[in-house]
Specification:
Maltoporin, Chain A, 4 helices, 6% helix, 40 strands, mainly beta, 52% strand
Amino acid sequence: MRNHSKHIIVFITAGLLSGYAFAQELKDTIPKPTELGGVTINAQSATQKTKLQPVVATVVKARDAYEQSATLTELINRSPGVRLRQAGGLGAATDVSINGFQGKAIRYLKDGIPIDYLRDGFSIASLPINALERVEIYKGVLPVNLGVDALGGAVNLISRRSVPKYLAASYEVASFNTHRITVNGYYTNPTKKWFVAADAFYNYSDNDYKAKVKVTDPVTSNQVYDRVRLFHNSFSNVYGEISGGITNRKWADELKISVAAFHLQREQNHPALMTDPYGAITGKQSSVVPSIRYRKTFLDGKLSIDQFLVHNTVTVKRTDTLAGRYDWYGNFFPIPGRVGESRQAALSTIDYTNTTSRTHIKYKLNHQHSIEVNNVFTALKQKGTDPYGPKLDGTDITVISLPASYKKLVTGAGLNSTFLDDKLQTQLMAKFYHYQSSGTEAWQARPITKTDAVTQNGNNWGTAAAAKYTLTTNSFIRLSAEFANRLPDQEELFGDGIWTVPNFAITPERSFNINLGYRITNQQKDAVEVNTFYRRTEDLILLIPVQAPYAQYQNIRNVKGFGFEADGLYHLNNIFAINGNFTWQDIRLFKLQTSVDQWQNNARLRNTPYFFANAGITAQFKKLVTAKDNLKLYCYYNFVREYYLETIPKRLEPSSFLGLFGKSGVNTELVIPNQHLCSAGFHYAPFTSKISFGFEVKNLLNEDLYDNYRVQKAGRSFHCKINYTIQ
């Protein structure tokens, strides 16, 4: 009953928050534009423009949380329709689910550029919020200028560039020997003819929290649960980028040259599932990344060109050569003649050489219409060494030493229009996709010969349309639909060189998507937004465990579903503000023909949450002690309804309304249970906004929390953070 009460309360709370704010706003008088000396100001910020475009997008304002100890994962998880799952602590692999789509169906960008070339060096798993201005989360249809073949959405990370001159630094120390440092700086000369910028961050954590795992009872030899401390789970990474360029010239609005470098190291305490303990397996990644970007407008601003080019090599290493094994308590047991803890020993080095070119051209036909074309070309080559790796049958030639390649072209064109005195905005889009890959499909489960060399290629088309109609000054509705294709990417084809094995037989995903939404705001910045969606996907690509400890990306036939979400923000007064949101989605398998698989028809998509909700309250007090001090208190609550590690028949699901109550009739090993995460903290700026101090307690109730593939997350932790900014 206690657990039932919790999720009933959060469901009702989120709904009431949205409904109450909605009712209040309908009573508000429609705000009028601010007037200063006869001049009407209607300018929109970049954040507002993203929120108000015809395609559906959620904006997470990172700058509002600079003083907090929140991770980027936590900020994103407070948004409706989005669930970011992380397989462990700081730096662990992440997987974003947007309206039921997940994995590689969601693409990642940095300032509008696809960031596959950075691999884990610039990842949501470790990226500090102080390095970003905001995060744009697109659901379903994407604008042409993003230029990726995403099927279900995209996450666009916008770099921190808030003012012409600033220097900012932050340091966070936390439980599990966690340390995070961020430094950002930007300077442009008084004439705005040139600029320099620097961004850097460093992360380290032992990630040695306690987790509940199965161990062998020394008396009975039975498998029993015990709570142990993860002893080989540390993560560290460093990223730095220096850029400079010229601006406001006759031949260039901006010419920017950047050089970035990163190195990360991750210890592996277990495979994808927490089934076996490892005590010596490590992985590393590093690269130096030069890039150039050129932007220019012509013909009195009618024609604009944006060109980006990058070429780099990411080196990925994996070490698994231990002559023995560890147990979950960190005890080592030597095993003469054995090499490696996992089923595949490794001392591998793989070089991924990447070239990415992105060209965006836009032309304004007149006040009402503009056209744009976006072209993204990616070329990847892979080659490596591993004395313990799979070899061609009957030879000493390691498969990983054979070259593999991947090329992808995504070209999009769009027409943007406005009608009815700009009340109606429309976007019509078409995209062409082409890919070509070659390599050798290989892993240790079977003999490998030259005949396993595979070449794949394909061409696909996609179309989309989006419309937004402004009802009043502060409310609008929008509708978008698309026939989309998503090409398999490099990791899905090649694997990751660690736990994901290659699969060159996978085919592109195809999907039909519809989004419908309504948003209303008022003068106090209160807002309510509701959205609903429908998805129908064929040949969905999903990461599937194959032979422990390995997983492989596979096409899993057909998936369809629908869902809805609501999000509300309401300011009680000048001090207190509350917010809440919830998401419910019903994503299921369908049209399975074989007798072996027919039982799965209408079953939920495995390892995918179907209901989650958030609630939060903040309070801000000024001039408590000094004339310039500022204190902000906050508390956030997140709930995730139980979901299932494997596919289960629909008849075994809870029979309650929308599946929100009760328990499933399956083995508890297959259930990721109901989860309640509560975090609270404060930050205080004593004199000016230049310096602030923050403190936060995460997982305040010390609940058992699980995430991707039922990997347990950390218990209660404590975080202190200091920020210093000059601008």
